[in-house]
Amino acid sequence: MDVQKSSGAMTVNEFLSWASIGRTKFYQEHAAGRLRIRKIGRKTVVTMADAQAWLDALPAQQPVNA
After folding, report:
1. Total domain count for the chain?
2. At a CB cut-off of 8 Å and minimum separation 6, what does 21 contact?
3. Rounded to whole angstroms, how far apart are CA atoms 1 and 58?
4. Who has greater pLDDT, 62 or 24?
5. Beta strand spans in 1-66 (E)
6. Are 12 and 30 in contact (CB under 8 A)?
7. Around 23, how many Cα atoms within 13 Å sit in the side-chain half-sphere?
8. What residues make up the domain containing 51?
9. pLDDT per residue over 31-66, tens digit each?
10. Assigned domain for 49 exists
11. Are 14 and 3 in contact (CB under 8 A)?
């Protein structure tokens, strides 16, 4: 499945691949209220809009001047 789509939802595994984070970090981000998840029956999904909002809310890294 192409997780580069612009709408719809991703499974947890697709989100982990998309965001390049681990499962523990995923659930930490959700527990902290920074990542919204949804349930379809027993399946957990993240909408593309919520995934992008999470990514956009991450702090930007400032360049280090050596």
Report:
1. 1
2. 29
3. 26
4. 24
5. 9-11, 38-40, 43-47
6. no
7. 4
8. 9-57
9. 999 999 999 999 999 999 999 999 999 999 888 886
10. yes
11. yes
Question: Domain for residue 32, yes or no?
Answer: yes
Asked whether the predicted pLDDT for residue 3 surpasses 90, the reply is no
Residue 23 resides in a domain: yes
Q: Is the residue at 29 inside a domain?
A: yes
Encoded tokens for 34: 């920074």
User: Can you tell me whether residue 39 is helix, strand or coil?
Assistant: strand
Amino acid identity, residue 36? R
Q: Per-residue b/e over 26-49, b at no fewer than 16 CB within 10 Å?
A: beebbeeeebebeeeeeebbbbbe
Distance CA 54, CA 43 (A): 20
- Gap between the Cα atoms of 11 and 13, Å rounded: 5
Amino acid at 16: L
Query: 3-class DSSP state for residue 64?
Result: coil
